[in-house]
Design a protein that fits this description.
The complex is a heterodimer.
Chain A: E1 2-13, E2 16-28, E3 33-37, H1 44-51, E4 59-64, E5 67-68, H2 74-84, E6 85-88, H3 100-111, H4 115-128, H5 144-157, E7 162-166, H6 174-189, E8 193-198, H7 201-204, E9 209-214, E10 217-223
Parallel strand pairs in A: 3-8, 3-9, 6-7, 7-8
Antiparallel strand pairs in A: 1-2, 1-4, 4-5, 9-10
Helix pairs in contact in A: 3-4, 3-5, 4-5, 5-6
Chain B: H1 8-19, H2 22-57, E1 64-69, E2 87-88, H3 89-98, E3 102-117, E4 120-129, H4 133-136, E5 141-144, H5 149-153, E6 158-162, H6 163-169, E7 180-183, E8 186-194, E9 207-210, H7 211-218, E10 223-224, E11 226-231, H8 237-251, E12 262-266, H9 267-310, H10 312-320, H11 325-362, H12 377-404, H13 407-412
Parallel strand pairs in B: 4-9, 6-8
Antiparallel strand pairs in B: 1-11, 1-12, 2-10, 3-4, 3-7, 3-11, 5-8, 6-9, 7-8
Classes of the chains: A alpha/beta, B alpha+beta.
Chain lengths: 233, 414
């Protein structure tokens, strides 16, 4: 479902350039739950941004669901992002003057769905993350875990092929982190493909596969026995 | 393409983002509000001044000139300088027949008269007039009629008197029409009563009597005090004045270059000056109003630009969720236009209030300086169109700024 070949990416820093990704080869099948690990500066976020079409590679091939992602116009990229990808951020990135439901509706709005349909779908997904009763609350009235759940519901709303999570538990305490991971595992059980960037071992071990990055290259790529998060909750 | 304008969601988005920060939205709108308020108030006042001016001059044929005789300043054909010049009925007739573009020539005579009725009396300005006078200098009759041709033909002893005379020599609420008054010891019948005018061309007129009667009682012969000449609308009254003067000099054996032999007052000229002044004022009003508007719209653009910077992250999120750059731009432009329109709307309303206030303060009564201060729907419409255009243009700047930031950069900002 996702294939990356010989991916390179450099950032200019002053008049020199920093080579962040030095030839990444990665392929992810449908239904996988992959953790991308690495210390800061290893290039893991850059990789996720390229996969998320928020950034573009200098060199190499990126095929998502049979579509080669290359030289996209902003408009095309926006449409692909909306259709293929759901984002979950470390800092949730909810729009704070919108209610939980409105936040979840946003990708549907950009999909061009009718108001009624959006309302139904967003409520459905809020129900799924267990926040149906909080639909009319603003992010400021929610706890960190609840915010991340709303963000997950938002990522799910457009029914994407791939969920991309950038340190989804980075801003949460351990208990809430496991709570969120349990939920992500549940999504994976239902067949969603997940890509999770993290630097925490325990979080990585809750995935099915761990890809370790160091200095822009993949050091290790192993399948692991998934640790179920429910047991900690 | 404009379908989005009719979707509730578009407006929901605009409403959300504007009401999120009410104070900022309101402060932003103040500039435009002030601009349009000034535009409306100034244009309305200018119109009010023009109206009062028109009302003042409305009773006069503005394309007219008054000519009277003075003394010569150059010797000519055996006459010494300093010869007294008196115009005559013959002069008036000749001018009417020969000068191009003339509508009317109306000779007038003026003197003072002692008016007595029973034990009340007073001294007033008296004029010998033709019925035509009413055509070029409207006599606002309150009761009765003006002098007619029959009065002229039969040298009738009839008088049209002003309100102020009525007040002096008649009792309150007394019927004046048909009553007799004594003018210089002769009985005249009052046939009309007219309203005092705010503005007088020439000496103050309080009594009109038939021209022929005036000739008789003051033993004037053919001589006249002055003449009013009105030109047809398509002719230049300054040319008519020049032509007439030249002809009068010819008829009265006066040096053609003698500048002081005739005095004149060219109403058309004065009127043109006033009209030019008013036009200038209107132009200035538009200029000031629109300049203020532009300043206000720039304030909106400026604030939106700041807002966009503040909302970088939000815009990044929206783009991550699939908003196209066009959708982001559209959103910001619609916000800009909405702000300008709402502000403009309040500006128009409060400008209207100012005009209402001006009207109640200065617009009442006969000597009002600002009459019916108002702006036309067309002006309001033009102002609104300008607002929409400016709002769109100014909204484009922050809109492009917003989409020039890559979503990744936007999201990275913590």
């Amino acid at each position: 479902m996702l294939t990356i070949k010989k991916l390179h990416k450099s950032y200019p820093i002053g008049d020199r350039s920093l080579h962040v990704l030095k030839g990444i080869d990665l392929s992810v099948e449908e239904g996988e739950m992959v953790a991308i690990m690495g210390s800061s500066g290893s290039g893991k976020s850059t990789l996720l941004n390229i996969i998320g079409m928020l950034d573009e590679a200098d060199e190499g091939e990126y095929i998502l669901d049979g579509v080669t992602i290359k030289n996209l116009t902003e408009k095309k990229a926006a449409i692909y992002r909306n259709k293929f990808l759901g984002f979950i951020f470390q800092s949730f990135n909810l729009i704070n003057y919108k209610t939980a439901q409105e936040n979840v509706s946003l990708p549907l709005y950009y999909q061009g769905l009718k108001r009624k349909e959006r309302q139904e779908k967003s409520l459905f997904h809020l129900e799924k993350v267990g926040l149906r009763d909080w639909a009319d609350h603003h992010p400021s009235e929610l706890s960190g875990g609840q915010k991340q759940r709303v963000a997950i519901a938002r990522a799910l709303a457009a029914n994407p092929k791939l969920l991309l999570a950038d340190e989804p538990t980075g801003a949460l305490d351990t208990k809430t982190s496991y709570d969120i991971m349990a939920f992500l595992q549940q999504l994976n059980d239902e067949g969603k493909t997940l890509l999770i960037v993290t630097h925490e071992e325990d979080i990585a071990n809750m995935c099915k596969r761990i890809v370790r990055l160091k200095d822009g290259v993949i050091m290790e790529d192993v399948k692991v026995d998934q640790v179920r998060a429910e047991q900690y909750v | 393409m404009f379908k989005f304008l009719f979707e509730r969601d578009t407006w929901q988005e605009v409403f959300d983002s504007l009401s999120k920060n009410k104070l900022r939205s309101i402060l932003t709108m103040v500039g435009v509000w002030w601009g349009i308020l000034l535009l409306i108030a100034l244009l309305g006042s200018a119109r009010g001044l023009e109206n009062s001016f028109n009302r003042l001059f409305g009773s006069f044929a503005t394309n007219s000139v008054f000519i009277w005789g003075q003394s010569t300043s150059k010797p000519f054909k055996g006459f010494q300088e300093g010869k007294r010049v008196r115009l005559s009925l013959t002069d008036a007739k000749k001018i009417e027949e020969n000068i191009e573009g003339i509508e009317f020539v109306i000779p007038r005579n003026q003197n003072q008269a002692l008016v007595v009725r029973r034990e009340l009396s007073g001294t007033f300005g008296i004029n010998g007039d033709y019925p035509l006078l009413d055509k070029v200098q409207k006599v606002n009759l309150m009761h009765g009629r003006f002098i007619n041709q029959n009065d002229i033909d039969n040298n009738k002893k009839v008088a049209v008197i002003s309100e102020s005379i009525y007040k002096q020599v008649f009792e309150k609420d007394e019927e004046a029409i048909g009553e007799l008054i004594q003018i210089n010891g002769m009985n005249f019948m009052v046939i009309g009563l007219f309203e005092d005018s705010n503005i007088n061309m020439g000496p103050r007129t309080e009594i009109h009597i038939p021209f022929t009667t005036f000739q008789q009682i003051y033993n004037q012969g053919d001589q006249i005090g002055w003449m009013m000449i009105t030109g047809k609308p398509e002719y230049d009254i300054r040319q008519i004045e020049e032509d007439s003067k030249l002809m009068l000099k010819n008829l009265n054996k006066i040096h053609p270059k003698d500048k002081r032999a005739f005095g004149s007052f060219n109403l058309g000229n004065e009127f043109a000056k006033m009209t030019g002044f008013l036009t200038g004022m209107q132009f200035l009003t538009w200029f000031v109003g629109i300049a203020t508007l532009i300043a206000g719209v720039f304030a909106i653009g400026n604030i939106l630009l700041i807002t966009v910077k503040e909302r970088t992250k939000e815009i990044g999120v929206r783009r991550a969720l699939g908003a196209t750059p066009f959708e982001i731009k559209r959103q910001i432009v619609v916000e800009a236009v909405s702000l300008t329109l709402i502000a403009g709307f309040f500006g128009i309303i409060s400008g209207g209030w100012i005009l209402i206030a001006l009207d109640s303060a200065f617009g009442q009564g006969d000597d009002a300086t600002i009459v019916n201060a108002s702006v036309s729907i067309a002006v309001v419409f033009v102002a609104v169109v300008i607002l929409v255009i400016l709002g769109t243009l100014i909204g484009l700047i922050p809109a492009f700024k917003a989409t020039s930031i890559k979503p990744i950069e936007a999201l990275r900002e913590e």
